[in-house]
Amino acid sequence: MWTMQPWTVMMSNDRAIRHLPVILSIIVALALTMLPLPRVIEVFRPNWVALIMIFWALSVPRSYSVGIAWVVGIVLDVSHGTLLGQYALALCVVVYIVVRFHLLMRVFPPLQLTATVFALIALYQFLLFWINGVAGITAPAIVYWAPVLTSAILWPLIFTLLSGVSFRVQMRS
Questions:
Q1: For 60, left (φ over 0), alpha (ψ -120 to 50), or beta?
Q2: Rounded to an integer, what distance in angstroms lies between the CA atom of residue 96 and that of residue 116?
Q3: What are the pLDDT tens digits along the chain (173 aa)?
Q4: What are phi and psi of 65, to 5 degrees?
Q5: Are the C-beta atoms of 43 and 143 separated by less than 8 Å?
Q6: Positive or negative torsion for Cα 67, 97, 119, 165
Q7: Burial (CB count <10 Å: 0-12, 13-18, 19+), residue 59
């Protein structure tokens, strides 16, 4: 009869604990994305999921990259009721760019990193705009471009809040 060794149980528990902050932050970002808001404020809703995925791809690129972005994007597609793969494609492109240039981005000063995140969120929104345009779905321009500004404004706060958690996740890797 095969039995589990005690160290394998400890390793699996440690692995689960290591991934818990990342999973919780993604769940919170998904909840904030689906949270109902008044119509006036809703167009300014930041791209919570994209910001969290950019942060984790920047902090721990070997563990949280394009595959996780695809799964989270599919969850976003289903929750929004949009074309299947729309958010997944946009997230994958942005996360791929972050993973590809993470060593360069890590040494950016805060203002330059915020400007880079602004450009990445603008690319994310442009991809969504382009996919909707190809599908014949129209929306006012503010729906696509207002979240870029609010996301860039919130990036320093998100980066600061998650940096301590990121250090603990990296130390356990």
A1: beta
A2: 14
A3: 455 555 444 445 666 677 888 999 999 999 999 999 998 899 999 999 999 999 999 999 988 889 999 999 999 999 999 999 999 999 999 999 999 999 999 999 999 999 999 999 999 999 999 999 999 999 898 999 999 999 999 999 999 999 887 666 655 55
A4: -135, -135
A5: yes
A6: positive
A7: buried
User: Which candidate, 62, 92, 77, 84, places its Cα nearest to that of 30?
Assistant: 77
Say what the alpha-carbon torsion angle 75, 132, 47, 154 is, to the nearest 10 degrees. 170
CB 55 within 8 A of CB 156: no
Q: Is 94 in contact with 124 (CB distance < 8 Å)?
A: yes
Q: Extract the tokens encoding 17.
A: 């604990």
- The DSSP call for residue 47 is -
- Residues constituting the chain: 173
